[in-house]
Design a protein that fits this description.
This protein is of the alpha/beta class. It has one domain: 3-Layer(aba) Sandwich (Rossmann fold), CATH 3.40.50. The chain is 41% helix and 17% strand. It has a seven-stranded parallel β-sheet with strand order 3-2-1-4-5-6-11, sandwiched between helices. It is globular. The structure holds NADP nicotinamide-adenine-dinucleotide phosphate (NAP). NADP nicotinamide-adenine-dinucleotide phosphate (NAP) is lined by residues 6-7, 9-13, 31-33, 47-49, 69-73, 88, 92, 110, 112, 140, 159-162, 167.
Length: 298
């Protein structure tokens, strides 16, 4: 299947596209730019905020499915520049949804746990009410609404706490800090499920032939706090000289209100007997191993 991927040079996109190829699909990589130092295979320049450019790329490449991963993902940046957040995450998704509707192509829109307020003590199912606390969450939710309204053939795939070897994730920042610091503070009262981009990619590929359109939660199994995640990543990397001081989110300097408990229950997958996502600790181990191999090969 020919699969157009937006945000192909991003953290998720760089894992997803080669995995699509391995699975026998043909990715059409699109993005606004390429990351410094990234070895990018051929890709199409496509700014999703331009409906004309998007339409022209669809006309020329004729995709059979679209995985829309492009977004303005800097959550604090979204808080400081809400117009840019809505331009890329809402307007950009609007133009993707319009093109998918016109060309009758299923869209897989990657969304986020930030659509929830994190007040629920149990994991969120796809049937729970949304209530974003931030411009990032609200702009991604606006994207969900565009996709659901314009495209009958839509998959809204919410995920959270992504780690990928081709991006700057929380875990990679922790490992970077460990080179120069012996102690730092980590938030202890926000809970989520760390998710490996390769595991999310594998599930997206499994969903490609599905016709059960709708909303899906995809994350690794289990949940932890940022503090527990940092401690696990350091311990698995054999780093023992660090002291992590637990702090409440209220002491973390950020303009963004984040959901406190936004664990996603993969209920749609469960109900279809498809929920075999592995535990986050196993996925983290694999992520760390792959990052080590990548660094060794540089
Ligand atoms: N990272 C997480 O923890 C997380 C959690 C939940 C959901 N998600 C969602 O998962 C998806 C992938 O996330 P990610 O971490 O891989 O993000 P990422 O690394 O920031 O990749 C997003 C890509 O989209 C590109 N982009 C930005 N504006 C664009 C535009 N106007 N037109 C076309 N491309 C544009 C970015 O380019 P520039 O970098 O040059 O701007 C970047 O290459 C996003 O939709 C995100 O909202 C992520």
């Amino acid at each position: 299947m020919k699969v157009l991927v937006t945000g192909a040079n991003g953290m998720l996109g760089q894992d997803l596209c080669p995995m699509l190829e391995e699975a026998g699909h043909t990715p059409v990589r699109t993005d606004v730019g390429v990351k410094e130092g990234a070895a990018a295979p051929a890709w199409e320049a496509m700014d999703i905020t331009s409906p004309q450019v998007v339409r022209e790329v669809f006309e020329r490449t004729r995709p059979e499915a679209v995985i829309h991963a492009a977004a303005y993902t800097d959550v604090d940046g979204c808080e400081r520049s809400p117009d840019l957040a809505y331009k890329i995450n809402a307007m950009g998704t609007w133009s993707m949804a319009a093109a998918c509707a016109e060309f009758d192509v299923p869209i897989y829109y990657i969304s986020t746990d930030f659509v929830f307020d994190g007040e629920k003590s149990e994991p969120y199912t796809e049937f729970d009410a949304v209530n974003p606390l931030s411009h990032y969450g609200a702009s991604k939710l606006a994207g969900e609404q565009m996709v659901a309204r314009l495209c009958r053939k839509h998959f809204i795939v919410r995920t959270q706490w992504l780690n990928g070897v081709h991006g700057r994730s929380f875990v990679s920042i922790m490992l970077e800090l460990a080179r120069t610091r012996s102690e730092w503070k980590v938030v202890v009262d926000q809970i989520g499920s760390p998710t490996f981009t390769r595991d999310l990619s594998a599930m997206l590929i499994r969903l490609l032939p599905s016709r059960l359109y709708g909303t899906y939660h995809v994350s690794n199994r289990g949940a932890c706090s940022w503090h527990e995640l940092a401690a696990a990543a350091l311990q698995m990397s054999g780093i023992t000289h660090i002291t992590l001081h637990p702090i409440p989110a209220s002491q973390w300097p950020s303009p963004t209100r984040r959901p406190a408990h936004s664990v996603l229950r993969r209920y749609a997958l469960e109900l279809q007997g498809m929920d075999d996502m592995r535990p986050w600790q196993e996925a983290l181990q694999d992520f760390l191993q792959q990052q080590k191999t990548l660094t060794a090969n540089l």
